[in-house]
Amino acid sequence: MVPIHPGAVLAISWPGGLVAALSTLAVLVHVTICVAALCVIPGGRRPSTGMAWLLLILATPYVGFLLFLLLGSTHVERRRHLKQLHVNERIQERTAAVAELHEDTPRLAYVASAARLNRHLGALPAVGGNAVDFLPDYQAAILTMADAVHAATDYVHVEFYITAWDEVTDPFFDALVQATERGVRVRLLLDHLGSRGIPTYKETVRRLDSTRIEWRPMMPIDPLHGRMRRPDLRNHRKILVVDGRVAFAGSQNLIEATYDKPKNRKAGRAWVDLAVRVEGPAVTALDAVFRTDWYSETDEVIEVSGDTLTPVLDGTGSSVGDVVCQVVPSGPGFPMENNLRLFTTLLYSAQQRISLTSPYFVPDESLLYAVTTAAQRGVSVELFVSAVGDQFMVYHAQRSYYEALLEAGVRIFRYPAPYVLHSKHFTIDDDVAVVGSSNMDMRSFALNYEVSLMLLGPEVVKRMRAVEDAYRAVSSELTHAEWSGRTRGARYVDNVMRLTAALQ
Description:
Blueprint: H1 6-40, H2 47-59, H3 61-71, H4 78-94, H5 109-122, E1 127-135, H6 138-150, E2 155-160, H7 170-181, E3 185-191, H8 192-196, H9 201-209, E4 214-218, E5 234-235, E6 238-242, E7 246-250, H10 262-267, E8 271-272, E9 275-279, H11 282-298, E10 323-330, H12 338-349, E11 353-357, H13 365-376, E12 380-386, H14 392-399, H15 402-408, E13 411-415, E14 420-421, E15 425-428, E16 432-436, H16 442-446, E17 448-456, H17 458-474, E18 476-478, H18 480-484, H19 488-501
Parallel strand pairs: 2-3, 3-4, 5-17, 8-14, 11-12, 12-13
Antiparallel strand pairs: 1-9, 1-10, 2-6, 6-7, 7-9, 10-17, 11-15, 13-18, 15-16, 16-17
Helix pairs in contact: 2-3, 4-11, 5-12, 6-7, 12-13, 14-19
């Protein structure tokens, strides 16, 4: 028998002991993560969102935990949040004299309530005397914005989620450059990550740097300067303000309609949008939203008419139209999900008709119930979506809701391929039109900075209906029988993507 040296015994037994120790440690960490998740995740989240995170962490603790650390918080930096609170206080001070809408106004009792909600959450009041034009032609909208810039004498404020200097937007940027040469001050904000994904981004930056345009990225991620946050928070707003006299908003980004991507051009895929041109007191409200974002990104306070943050918004400015308009900002800086609360309030108030247009319809429980309940109580409800999607996960998550919508009696119209219907708006009865940058999805409610316009009156609703009618004329209606015949594989993908959409 060959003797075994004691050191050899140690060498043989030690790896086994190490494995056992690591296994025990792994179990303890696993249990700790799961117990902590049960305590931490449900707090302050929607039940569906909390359950989705819990399922992911309980199934794959380490991967789920790391994803939660990266994506689990919707909060912005404290300094940004404090700036928003400061601006809201200033707006409330300077608009204290603006009267509320009267509940005795015919047919507008529920709208007056919605306006009070918007003012309570977003600070900006509803103001009358506005003129509103809808611009459904993509290229014509850019040229109309360029014309407004050509008339600028004081300042131009530009804020778009995606910005690209290409052959279609070139007239607009030429107008901006010419404005700076006349001594007009031009400020431009673009979302940092949203615009970086465009092939022409580097060229756009190079060209902007060669001009006098003052431009800054919104929501930048810059670890070297302490700018770290959840990476998929976005400033999704689209705003143009010229001299405080005219403004534009809506769903359209500042880019060519195929988003400068060769694969889209090859497929004939182009975005269909709706921009809105506004004159009147509401322009000041849109300008206040821009200046808040500029202040958040640059720490620079823009002085306008002797004021530091908010010009007077008292509803007494020159009346240029008969539309009552309320600007509704929302996003991570507004913890009450202003847009979601407004949307559900209006949907529950509808009595005759609801028409919804949303490229990404991924509702939470409250919005889904508002839409389906309206249909079940006899309101005529229609939803316009794209027949094809430009984002795989969101498109399939959206499809997972079609069954419930169709069963409730909602009519679904699919805008034809290869176009992407990107417009974001809805109408309620003959009373209200809402248009802006906000989709009807959980991302737009919790993660994106958005801006919406609530427009009141039968005349403006009638003009919005003309846009909806144009969509319906070219769209195909999805029937319940057709949808029930889809494959099991398609159902599976849709339902899995629905689960991922809840991880907010």
